[in-house]
Design goal:
four-stranded antiparallel sheet, 0% helix, binds FE2/S2 (inorganic) cluster
Length: 102
């Protein structure tokens, strides 16, 4: 059953910043875009690179390995070589707890 898991303090992730967290051994990236948080699979769907180590420009993440781009709101592929969308997760802030639904 889906549940919200606290992954970080909301004020520890600044606007424009991405961090990698682990939820039940699942690597998830959390990004702050102008105060709105987005969570998505940290592992690129092309090979096995950490997207949190890539570049974030507004709602687009660029993989550091071969520069595939994804829309972190929907997971949609915006640029190759990736062809499979990212999985994205609901996020909420409770007090200062940043929670991701998995
Ligand atoms: S591993 Fe991300 S583009 Fe290749």
């Amino acid at each position: 059953m889906a549940r919200f898991v606290t992954v970080a303090k909301a004020d520890s992730i600044q606007p424009g910043q991405m961090v990698k967290v682990e939820i039940d051994n699942l690597p998830v990236a959390v990004a702050n875009v102008g105060g709105t948080f987005h969570a998505f699979d940290d592992t690129c769907t092309h090979e096995d690179c950490s997207l949190a180590e890539g570049e974030l420009a507004r709602t687009t993440v660029t993989c550091p390995c071969h520069f595939a781009e994804f829309d972190i709101r929907t997971g949609a592929v915006l640029a190759p070589p990736a062809t499979v969308p990212l999985k994205v997760y609901p996020v909420r802030v409770e007090g200062n707890d940043l929670q991701v639904e998995v």
